[in-house]
Amino acid sequence: MQRIIQWFAIFYVIVLTLLLELPIKVGEAASGGMAMGYAHLLTFTLLGFLVELSRKKRSLLFWIGVLIVYAFATEVMQGLLNPICNRVFEWADILQNVLGVLFGTAIGHYCRRFVQR
Asked: What is the pTM of this model?
């Protein structure tokens, strides 16, 4: 089961990276309203959850660090691709990404401990 979760986590990272860097129409993100506000939080919560359930040898803090670097890197890429993709660097998105990573890994850690009993 852990192997399946690992493959799903890899697939999810690839799809997430592509979606975060896709071009958007001008004004499209702003029209998303509250749903767009929670999109980063929810996607990174799922990512943190999957990584926590699929990790084997590395420590939890190592993977939290990797995910936070990934969250920051995706926003930096959006800022760099702004002229092409109409994406912008936003600190609020990074905050939501990091909170999502922390929530997801905490939920995954709790689930892992609960299942192992």
From this structure: 0.83
- Domain encompassing residue 106: 2-116
Residue 33 has a pLDDT of 52
pLDDT at 54 over 70: yes
CA nearest 87: which of 17, 25, 12? 25
Residue with structure tokens 């936003």? 90
For residues 78 and 85, the answer to whether their CB atoms sit within 8 Å is: yes
Question: What is the per-residue pLDDT for 101?
Answer: 97
Instruction: Confirm if 53 and 112 have CB atoms less than 8 A apart.
Output: yes
State how far the Cα of 92 lies from the Cα of 98, in Å rounded to an integer.
10
Radius of gyration for the alpha carbons in the chain, expressed in angstroms and rounded: 15
Residue 51 to residue 54: CA distance in whole angstroms: 5
Query: What is the C-alpha separation between 81 and 105, in angstroms, rounded?
Result: 29
- The residue whose two tokens read 């702003």 is 30
Structural domains in the chain (count):
1
Assess whether pLDDT exceeds 70 at residue 31. no
